[in-house]
Amino acid sequence: MGEKHSVRGRVGDLPIQTQPAVCRILDANLDRAREGLRIIEEWCRFGMNSSPLVNECKQMRQELASWHSIELRAARDTPGDPGTELSHPQEEQRSSIEHLLQVNFSRVEEALRVLEEYSKLYDPDMGAATKQMRYRVYTLESSLLAYKRHQALLRSRLYLVTSASEELFSIVEAALQGGLTLVQYREKTADDNVKLAHANKLRQLCHQYGALFIMNDRVDLALAVDADGIHLGQQDMPIAIARQILGPQRLIGRSTTNPEEMQRAIAEGADYIGVGPVYETPTKVGKAAAGLEYVRYAAANSPIPWFAIGGIEVDNLNDVLGAGAERVAVVRAIMQSDQPMLMAQYFISQLGRVQTLRTIDARLPQSHV
């Protein structure tokens, strides 16, 4: 009771015309923050099936409800609120789930900032609590984006690594139309202005088709174009440094050529690894093939997603899949194909067929119990 009395005392110290205004501001923004969190929570629940993210949203909503006192609700004056008649064309449509989530994260963050400031006139404890909650929402936003990218990575079976081509964009778009969901932009010789322009265009294409866009080697360019992640070679910067620069929400992949490099990449926190080169390839001049034995090792020992890579073509795909691969990365097979869309469809169908058969095999013993 004493705490409630001190709260009313602070409002009572304000000019008489200011008291209801402050309470109305707090009431409106508590509603706004809770509504935005509920919209985010519904997607975490039904769109992402993520219990931890749902629980975090729910917990924050309940904490806000505990501050939403009868006193604040009593100050509400919906008929007299001029803001109820205001709107903007951008509020009347959402272009995608990502856009919807972004709008509501902004809504929650803005509401919490308003609560933080006006609570200083009402109850400093409420101000401190909403300030900390704002940082929790920032973390939630990063976590949700990271979760979305990881889920997309897990669903991806075919990974296209680009090579220099005058038809770069048309080839990539054709492969995307064929169902490709993961693209890495790899360009070793062009200057940075060209790389930046190409990466921007490819990122836009990938996101238009719901695919992930990965930048090869260059962490700075990955940030500049808002890539979904970065792929690092063995001679590139440590994963920990890349993570520090990129933050937790982006994917980091690492090329590996043997079990030792694989285990080190996993220990360092890679989100996925490349396994190869399975066969000798002009893409990796002078690098000996790791062979199918390394593919078998990865199949038995890698707890994270991995892509067999290096010289994989239509003619040897079955051998790679037979060694245990469930995901493959290709360069020439698509980049030099006359029919990149059909080639992407073929690889994806073969990978899907093998995955289905392995799933059935895994369930057979249980069906006979």
TrEMBL record:
<feature type="binding site">
    <location>
        <position position="311"/>
    </location>
    <ligand>
        <name>2-[(2R,5Z)-2-carboxy-4-methylthiazol-5(2H)-ylidene]ethyl phosphate</name>
    </ligand>
</feature>
<feature type="binding site">
    <location>
        <begin position="184"/>
        <end position="188"/>
    </location>
    <ligand>
        <name>4-amino-2-methyl-5-(diphosphooxymethyl)pyrimidine</name>
    </ligand>
</feature>
<comment type="pathway">
    <text>Cofactor biosynthesis; thiamine diphosphate biosynthesis; thiamine phosphate from 4-amino-2-methyl-5-diphosphomethylpyrimidine and 4-methyl-5-(2-phosphoethyl)-thiazole: step 1/1.</text>
</comment>
<dbReference type="Pfam" id="PF17792">
    <property type="entry name" value="ThiD2"/>
</dbReference>
<feature type="binding site">
    <location>
        <begin position="281"/>
        <end position="283"/>
    </location>
    <ligand>
        <name>2-[(2R,5Z)-2-carboxy-4-methylthiazol-5(2H)-ylidene]ethyl phosphate</name>
    </ligand>
</feature>
<comment type="similarity">
    <text>Belongs to the thiamine-phosphate synthase family.</text>
</comment>
<dbReference type="InterPro" id="IPR036206">
    <property type="entry name" value="ThiamineP_synth_sf"/>
</dbReference>
<dbReference type="InterPro" id="IPR016229">
    <property type="entry name" value="TMP_synthase_cyanobac_bac"/>
</dbReference>
<feature type="binding site">
    <location>
        <position position="216"/>
    </location>
    <ligand>
        <name>4-amino-2-methyl-5-(diphosphooxymethyl)pyrimidine</name>
    </ligand>
</feature>
<dbReference type="Pfam" id="PF02581">
    <property type="entry name" value="TMP-TENI"/>
</dbReference>
<dbReference type="InterPro" id="IPR022998">
    <property type="entry name" value="ThiamineP_synth_TenI"/>
</dbReference>
<dbReference type="InterPro" id="IPR034291">
    <property type="entry name" value="TMP_synthase"/>
</dbReference>
<dbReference type="GO" id="GO:0004789">
    <property type="term" value="F:thiamine-phosphate diphosphorylase activity"/>
</dbReference>
<keyword id="KW-0460">Magnesium</keyword>
<protein>
    <recommendedName>
        <fullName>Thiamine-phosphate synthase</fullName>
        <ecNumber>2.5.1.3</ecNumber>
    </recommendedName>
</protein>
<feature type="region of interest" description="Thiamine-phosphate synthase">
    <location>
        <begin position="137"/>
        <end position="369"/>
    </location>
</feature>
<keyword id="KW-0784">Thiamine biosynthesis</keyword>
<keyword id="KW-0479">Metal-binding</keyword>
<feature type="domain" description="ThiD2">
    <location>
        <begin position="24"/>
        <end position="142"/>
    </location>
</feature>
<dbReference type="InterPro" id="IPR013785">
    <property type="entry name" value="Aldolase_TIM"/>
</dbReference>
<feature type="binding site">
    <location>
        <position position="217"/>
    </location>
    <ligand>
        <name>Mg(2+)</name>
    </ligand>
</feature>
<feature type="binding site">
    <location>
        <position position="236"/>
    </location>
    <ligand>
        <name>Mg(2+)</name>
    </ligand>
</feature>
<feature type="binding site">
    <location>
        <position position="255"/>
    </location>
    <ligand>
        <name>4-amino-2-methyl-5-(diphosphooxymethyl)pyrimidine</name>
    </ligand>
</feature>
<dbReference type="InterPro" id="IPR041397">
    <property type="entry name" value="ThiD2"/>
</dbReference>
<feature type="domain" description="Thiamine phosphate synthase/TenI">
    <location>
        <begin position="158"/>
        <end position="334"/>
    </location>
</feature>
<comment type="function">
    <text>Condenses 4-methyl-5-(beta-hydroxyethyl)thiazole monophosphate (THZ-P) and 2-methyl-4-amino-5-hydroxymethyl pyrimidine pyrophosphate (HMP-PP) to form thiamine monophosphate (TMP).</text>
</comment>
<keyword id="KW-0808">Transferase</keyword>
<feature type="region of interest" description="Unknown">
    <location>
        <begin position="1"/>
        <end position="136"/>
    </location>
</feature>
<feature type="binding site">
    <location>
        <position position="284"/>
    </location>
    <ligand>
        <name>4-amino-2-methyl-5-(diphosphooxymethyl)pyrimidine</name>
    </ligand>
</feature>
